[in-house]
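## retry 2 of 3
previous attempt timed out at serialization; input unchanged, resubmitting
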Amino acid sequence: MFKQSIQKLLCGAVICQTAYEAEYLYLKAESHNDKVNDFLSNLDRKLTYLDSADAYYCTFNQVDDNNHHELSTLFSEMRNTFRPLVEFLDLLLTATQADLPIRAKSVLNINELFEPFEHDQTLSEQLRRLTSIKPFKTNKTETREQLVMVFQKLEEMHYFVRKNQGSSRYYATARFDLIYLLIEFLNDAELVSLPEQEKSQQDELLF
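## retry succeeded, writing output
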């Protein structure tokens, strides 16, 4: 399990009980945790624990000339998906009328979301706009098909997992919790300037 954990961490995986239960349980043992950290230290990396989601991921010890390019690439990739992800989370809050945004271990039944999106013109229009941009871009025109495609894409991106391929129940992973960390980081550092509408969406997510 040491090798599998290292491989996933170096590939950018967020190891939580929902997404990678075996690796998660392995890292929960202090001796295993120390062993993984010792190995990562040789690569100028460390094992970081996300307390709010009870999850582990790999980070660099420091930013320098050796990893600046890699970090810039990772940040650029995240920025390309950040706004669509925030819009998706805002849509879910409205459709489910939930008090809090989804986090690790949240469970969503996609069948229960069809009706709100099909009967609310504003929601369906927002979903149409969402599915006109990457990474959710699709040629599907039916609301149900668009929603299914969005969830399937998020599953591919490891934000959701399902117990079996045909299930309508999606289990959220700790990757969603990292979005909220990024929102806080961007707000604190003021690295991006968002339109007022998107800024209000972020405020809703921060609570």
